[in-house]
Amino acid sequence: MLLFVGLGNPTPNSQNNRHNIGFKIVDTINQKFSLSKQKPKFKGLLTTGNIKEKKVYAIKPLTFMNNSGICIRELLEYFKIEAEDVIVFHDDLDVEFGKIKAK
C-alpha cells in the first residue's frame, strides 16, 4: 500500500503558483494511472486505485499546507498506512527552480 500526498493551498489564487506543485503532481498521477474520481474525505480530496497491482491512495489536503498533518494523520490511522509507505510532494524554496530532491 502507498500513500501519495500532494501539498499545497486550496485557494484559487494559489492554484498556479510554485507552492502548489504537490497538488499538480497528485493530479498528474491520478490522470496517468486512472485513479478514482477525487472525493472529499479526511479533510482533503482523496483518490484510490492500483499501480502495478499495488493499492494506492493519493490525497490533496484542503487544510492549507501548514496544517496538512491533520488530514494525513486521519488517513494513516484509518487505513493503517505505515510512515515508510508515504511519499510527500511539495515545493522547497532552497532547491533551484526546475530541480528535484528526494529524501
Automatic annotation (TrEMBL):
Give a yes or no for keyword Hydrolase in this entry: yes
Q: Which InterPro entries match?
A: Pept_tRNA_hydro (IPR001328), Pept_tRNA_hydro_sf (IPR036416)
Looking up Pfam families in the UniProt record yields: Pept_tRNA_hydro
Keyword RNA-binding among record annotations: yes
Can you provide one Gene Ontology molecular function annotated for this UniProt record?
tRNA binding
SUPFAM superfamilies registered for this protein in UniProt: Peptidyl-tRNA hydrolase-like
Q: Which UniProt keywords apply?
A: Hydrolase, RNA-binding, tRNA-binding
* Protein name, per record: Peptidyl-tRNA hydrolase
Q: Which organism is it from?
A: marine metagenome
